[in-house]
Write a structure and sequence with these properties.
Elements lengths: L4 E9 L5 E10 L4 E5 L6 H9 L7 E9 L2 E2 L4 H4 L4 E4 L3 H4 L6 H13 L3 H14 L5 H4 L9 H13 L5 E5 L7 H18 L2 E6 L2 H7 L2 E6 L2 E7 H6 L4 H8 L49 E4 L2 E3 L10
Parallel strand pairs: 3-8, 3-9, 6-7, 7-8
Antiparallel strand pairs: 1-2, 1-4, 4-5, 9-10, 10-12, 11-12
Length: 317
């Protein structure tokens, strides 16, 4: 059986030819939770938009394929988007229509993608709000987005994404700007809904705590390229790419109160400033001259563990 979603050799470029995503490959199986992690500017959200066929104007996919259950989505995104694959966008306040009531926004998806109308769409919209645990759901159907809290708006976004019962759900930073308590509630809700419906879930985040809690496999993305892909246990116990190691070292350890936090010097390069070789080389403490000669291929270190590094630290010397 083919993977639920398979991205193979995906390359996205600007009009000037600069790559935003370069030769990115990943897969998600039915019922699996895949985490995508990396600093801001690593291309996480752009990868999600490319997988959904929602690239911003000016950007184009110049190589690679995106398949859903073995079907190439090129030219077919509209037929599947919202029905078989859905996305929870990063900021619900700007993603929801500010002049439409919450219930009307959910019903719109149900009419276009679920084939429901009239009373059936209203009843289903109410069921969805109850499913995502919004209190007093019947009254909230008539509320406008600005009348809801950040956590409630995020729950509405989840309800809209689940309206047509998709097979794949992409959640782009679903807990951004939420307090810790609400963040935990949203993550618990996503995990419960994913298990209940058997969804494939892609969770995009910069937070390794979120990855540890919910993901089964992890893709570490840096400057538009895959740095490392592995089961979540391997990422935490035996990270091979220097970038993954430094990211993990920068996570605060509550048991080491006086220890200085690790930091990565420099910043993620912009699309106009990508190095010719390994994109992490200018910031890497283990770089060699060979690292700047050309981009490293992603290769297998072990079953299910792939690394895009010429000299994976801790495995080869």
């Amino acid at each position: 059986m083919p993977p639920l979603l398979e991205v193979e050799g995906l390359t996205v470029r600007l009009p000037g030819g600069q790559s935003v995503l370069d030769d990115v490959s990943l897969r998600v199986d039915a019922g699996e939770v895949l985490g995508i992690v990396g600093e801001s500017g690593s291309g996480k959200s752009m990868l999600a938009l490319a997988a959904m066929g929602l690239l911003p104007p000016g950007l184009r996919m110049t190589a690679g394929r995106v398949r859903l259950l073995g079907e190439n989505l090129a030219g077919r995104w509209r037929a599947h988007r919202g029905r078989d694959m859905a996305m929870i966008f990063q900021e619900p306040m700007t993603s929801l229509n500010p002049v439409m009531r919450v219930g009307a926004q959910i019903e719109e998806v149900l009419r276009w993608r679920g084939g429901l109308g009239g009373g059936a769409s209203r009843r289903r919209a109410l069921e969805l709000l109850e499913q995502v645990e919004i209190p007093d759901a019947k009254r909230r159907l008539r509320a406008y987005p600005h009348e809801l809290s950040g956590g409630m708006r995020q729950r509405v976004m989840i309800a809209i994404a689940l309206a047509a019962r998709p097979k794949l759900l992409i959640a782009d930073e679903p807990t951004t700007a939420l307090d810790v308590t609400v963040q935990a509630q949203i993550l618990d809700l996503l995990r419960a809904l994913q298990r209940e419906a058997g969804l494939g879930l892609i969770l995009i985040t910069h937070d390794f705590g979120v990855i540890a809690e919910i993901a089964e496999r992890v893709v570490v993305l840096y400057a538009g390229r895959v740095a490392e892909t592995a089961p979540v246990r391997t990422i935490f116990d035996a990270p091979a790419h220097p970038y993954t190691q430094i990211l993990l070292a920068s996570v605060p350890d509550p048991t080491q109160r006086r220890a200085r936090l690790a930091a990565i010097p420099g910043t993620v390069p912009g699309a106009m400033d990508m190095p010719a070789g390994c994109r992490f080389a200018p910031r890497c403490p283990h770089r060699r001259d060979v690292c700047e000669a050309g981009p490293p291929a992603v290769r297998a270190l072990a079953a299910g563990h792939d690394v895009g590094c010429l000299r994976p630290f801790g495995y080869q010397r």
